[in-house]
Amino acid sequence: MQRIKKAYAENGDKKIIPEAPPLDGSENWEQGRGSYYELDNDPNTGDPLALDIDREQDNYFKNVISNNIKHWQENTYPNWFDDIEYPKNATVKYTDGNIYISLVDNNTALPTDTDNWMNLEGLGMSGINDLSDKSTPDDTDNFALQEVGGDLKKVSFQNLTKLSQNDSRVKTALNASGDAPIYACRAWVNFNGTGTVAIRASGNVSSVTDNGVGNYTVNFTTAMPDSDYGAVTSCTGSSGAENKLINGRNNTSLSNLSCNLLVTNGSGADTDATTISVSIFR
Q1: What share of the chain has pLDDT > 90, as a percent?
Q2: Least confident piece of the model among 97-101, 159-163, 220-224
């Protein structure tokens, strides 16, 4: 694509092309160049109704097109015009230099009309993350949210609240009920502890270390905030009739980087298990 640095015939002779068709059938915006331009224009033998292309009108036409392309290349947004019924979400640049987006269809109001337009200046248009955090936001600190259906709504910081883990909306989304708060699982893993240890599925677990018979270390991808977490564990053995139990290793200190486990059978002997599951809560 060519960069247009100067509109065509910017300093040349130009003659405005009329909107409606003139009586002589000459060039106009509604019909363009009509059939008279196809007639033989030979000065001796040609048709007397034949029309030649007007150099100044041709300059004007190309100037309009190239000037509009130049504007888009340099400004991205088109200028606002008072004779356009703008659709919802149309974006324009007004004479005050600000960018506005239409909130309604068939919008003929001035962009400064806040019931029909939203001023996008200062809203962090490259992304919502451009908004800086505030401990006490002002009501004037507004930004746009795109809702389902394409409607743009202006939302004030004062209308937004931080959801806690006990908020009813959070519980509804997670199918939880009652007054007790809910807490997220910070890491989990399901692995085969026999032979070469192999992870079947996991979250926030980078690897499982085989320390010997029945002895495993679950390593976290991202560390826990501290070592005061709760580990929920379960296991099944290679033999369905054999009872197995997972114990925390009490001869090693707890770590926020990993969790050490020991699997024993009903007799208290260390043993490997076919399926071991671990979930970490904090």
Answers
A1: 46
A2: 159-163
**Burial of 207: CB neighbours in 10 Å, binned 0-12, 13-18, 19+:** middle
- In sequence order, the 6+-apart residues with CB closer than 8 A to the CB of 129 are none
Q: Which of 271, 273, 221, 230 is nearest to 254 (CA)?
A: 230
d(CA 30, CA 138): 51
Q: Which residues contact 31 (CB under 8 A, 6 or more apart)?
A: 21
Location of structure tokens 């392309």: 69
**Average of per-residue pLDDT across 126-130:** 41
β-partners of residue 244 are 265
The pTM is what?
Answer: 0.45
Which among 219, 269, 212, 215 is positioned nearest to 242, based on CA atoms? 269
User: How many of the other CB atoms lie within 10 Å of CB of 72?
Assistant: 11
Residues 6+ apart with CB under 8 A from 158: 137, 139
Q: Where are the domains of the chain?
A: 8-71, 91-131+139-159, 185-281
